[in-house]
């Protein structure tokens, strides 16, 4: 299923200084592309590179870990209580890390979870969901669904309000967040928001942004195909809405959405397309674009303010959705 798009030399003239600096760091390291090695090698390389991208860890009210029973095995959760979050009845966010369903873990997105916890004064739950190719689709979806059910069923124990739970994620985590929003609609467990950072919404990988930004902008089209091919069981999975939520028959009734788009990203067009479909389905959407930035910029907090600003924008949208819901319930 791997694609080989035709590309021209990348035009970097419109990039933000933060993106240019990060790309320069990557050229200096000159590490092999993930797709030339094994998933385990990719995981090690990814973790080893985090210190060059992410800033100092922001203090939060508390960080704890616990293990719950999962669909396949025990699931490890990291729970952040933000500064200013109430001890009981707090708003809650289920954060799903990115990494192409193959790499990433609780440490790789610790910085982002801390930001969300403090900025929103909420409780963030981050699961160490199963990764591919050891655990192919739908393992990650099943794990995330189990964690959402756990949060809603054990809200009092967690000190959260079961009716004020949102979901968020970046890249492949954004994919899982969109899928979980659709699942929650079917399960009649409504979410207050879905906060999507450059989400993957179409595993067909045929959008024009795969051609425009195929090489030279960090995440390449061939790497993304490698991730996808490790995740799916076969070609039929690509058309399954739980892999490609853009292909869902209807988006009516899903949670209000914040969608952050990086302007120089192979996932740009499918993120835009998903936001448009949500709007056409009558779902409240806040769409914000960072034209000069590249895929993964929210995980690059050491090199610019845009990383934290995107989380601030997501929280502002979430609060706006909450206010609108409260007003509707009062009317």
Condensed summary:
This protein has 331 residues and is an alpha/beta fold. It has ten helices and eight strands. It has one domain (19-330): Alpha/Beta hydrolase fold, catalytic domain (Rossmann fold, 3-Layer(aba) Sandwich), CATH 3.40.50.1820.
Instruction: State the separation between the terminal residues, measured CA to CA.
Output: 51 Å
Q: What's the tally of helices?
A: 10
Instruction: Report on the biggest sheet.
Output: 8 strands, mixed
Question: How would you spell out the order of helices and strands?
Answer: HHEEEHEHHEHEHHEHEH
Family: Belongs to the 'GDXG' lipolytic enzyme family.
GO molecular function, one term: hydrolase activity
Keywords: Hydrolase
Domain Alpha/beta hydrolase fold-3: 93-298
Write the topology of this structure.
Elements: H1 17-29, H2 39-49, E1 62-69, E2 74-81, E3 90-96, H3 110-119, E4 123-127, H4 139-153, H5 155-158, E5 160-170, H6 172-187, E6 194-197, H7 209-212, H8 221-231, E7 257-264, H9 268-280, E8 285-294, H10 306-330
Parallel strand pairs: 3-4, 3-5, 5-6, 6-7, 7-8
Antiparallel strand pairs: 1-2, 2-4
Pfam families: Abhydrolase_3
InterPro entries: AB_hydrolase_3, AB_hydrolase_fold, GDXG_lipolytic_enzyme, Lipase_GDXG_HIS_AS, Lipase_GDXG_put_SER_AS
Active site: 171
Written description of the protein model:
With 331 residues, this protein is of the alpha/beta class. It has a single domain (19-330), classed as Rossmann fold. 37% of the residues lie in helices and 18% in strands. The protein has ten helices and eight strands. It has helices spanning 17-29, 39-49, 110-119, 139-153, 155-158, 172-187, 209-212, 221-231, 268-280, 306-330, and strands spanning 62-69, 74-81, 90-96, 123-127, 160-170, 194-197, 257-264, 285-294. Helix 3 (110-119) links the parallel strand 3 (90-96) and strand 4 (123-127). Helix 3 (110-119) packs across helix 10 and helix 4 (139-153) packs across helix 6. It starts with 16 loop residues before the first helix and ends with a helix. GO terms for molecular function: hydrolase activity.
């Amino acid at each position: 299923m791997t694609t080989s798009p035709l590309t021209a030399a990348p035009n970097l003239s419109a990039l933000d200084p933060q993106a240019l600096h990060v790309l320069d760091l990557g050229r200096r390291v000159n590490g092999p592309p993930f797709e030339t090695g094994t998933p385990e090698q990719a995981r090690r390389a990814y973790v080893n590179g985090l210190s060059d991208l992410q800033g100092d860890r922001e203090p939060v009210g508390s960080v704890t870990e616990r293990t719950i029973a999962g669909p396949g095995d025990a699931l490890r959760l990291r729970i952040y209580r933000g500064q200013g979050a109430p001890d009981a009845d707090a708003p809650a966010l289920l954060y799903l890390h990115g990494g192409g369903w193959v790499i990433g873990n609780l440490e790789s997105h610790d910085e982002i979870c801390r930001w969300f916890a403090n900025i929103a004064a909420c409780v963030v739950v981050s699961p160490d969901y199963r990764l591919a190719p050891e655990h192919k689709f739908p393992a990650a979806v099943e794990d995330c669904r189990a964690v959402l059910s756990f949060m809603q069923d054990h809200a009092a124990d967690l000190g959260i309000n079961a009716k004020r739970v949102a979901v968020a994620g970046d890249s492949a985590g954004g994919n899982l967040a969109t899928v979980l929003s659709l699942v929650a609609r079917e399960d009649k467990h409504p979410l207050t928001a879905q906060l999507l950072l450059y989400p993957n919404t179409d595993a067909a990988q045929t959008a024009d942004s795969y051609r425009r930004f195929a090489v030279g902008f960090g995440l390449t089209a061939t790497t993304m195909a490698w991730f996808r091919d490790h995740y799916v069981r076969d070609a039929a999975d690509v058309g399954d809405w739980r892999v490609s939520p853009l292909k869902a028959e209807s988006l009516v009734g899903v949670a209000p959405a914040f969608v952050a788009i990086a302007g120089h990203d192979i996932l740009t067009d499918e993120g835009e397309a998903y936001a448009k479909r949500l709007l056409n389905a009558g779902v409240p959407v806040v769409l914000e674009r960072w034209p000069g930035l590249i895929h993964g910029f929210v995980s690059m907090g050491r090199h610019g303010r845009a990383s934290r600003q995107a989380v601030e924008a997501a929280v502002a949208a979430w609060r706006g959705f909450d206010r609108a819901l409260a007003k509707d319930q009062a009317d």
